[in-house]
Design brief:
mainly alpha; 2 domains; two-stranded antiparallel sheet; elongated
Length: 170
């Protein structure tokens, strides 16, 4: 799962809106609940970026190939009891449910965790599947380069940054 900063408020608003509309939570102030949900997503992004930067630094300092980056990041995340990759969606949903249960702006939760997670998973997946589209668009821009080379890696990151800026995702 890849969360983008530009999608956080949209995801939070949609999750809160669905939970309120389906009468799974009762809140006098949905805007504050949206902020609570968004805070979980923003904290996940912040910690993920911190781990990414630390893993990149270690790879660079130790002269490790880029292919060792994902494994290193996963090991570092495990030490911090943080989840990355495909399992991250469950981790984030558990965090959001915790926030709902302890928020001063949620008066009552009328649903079981698994019922709330169905809605959360649907919304999160809808807004994170964009990663495939972004990847395809970035790859199209650098299709003349050989994948796996240093030049390709550098140009791919540049192309991805351009695509994300154009779509206002970072």
């Amino acid at each position: 799962m890849k969360l983008y900063t530009g999608k956080v408020d949209i995801i939070a608003a949609e999750i809160c809106g669905r939970l309120v509309a389906d009468e799974l939570i009762d809140t006098p102030n949905p805007e504050e609940v949206e902020l609570d949900i968004a805070s979980v997503l923003k904290e996940y992004i912040r910690r993920d970026r911190k781990l990414t930067d630390a893993a990149k630094d270690i790879c660079e300092k130790q002269g490790l190939p880029y292919s060792s980056f994902p494994k290193l990041k996963r090991q570092m995340a495990q030490k911090e009891s943080f989840i990355v990759g495909d399992e991250a969606i469950d981790y984030v949903m558990d965090q959001m449910i915790g926030v709902l249960m302890h928020s001063q702006f949620v008066e009552e939760v009328f649903a079981e965790d698994h019922e709330i997670k169905v809605i959360m998973r649907e919304v999160i997946r809808k807004h994170t599947e964009i990663e495939t589209e972004l990847d395809a668009e970035a790859r199209q821009k650098i299709k003349n380069l050989k994948e796996g080379t240093n030049e390709w890696d550098i140009e791919y990151r540049k192309a991805m940054d351009q695509v994300m800026k154009r779509r206002k995702l970072n």
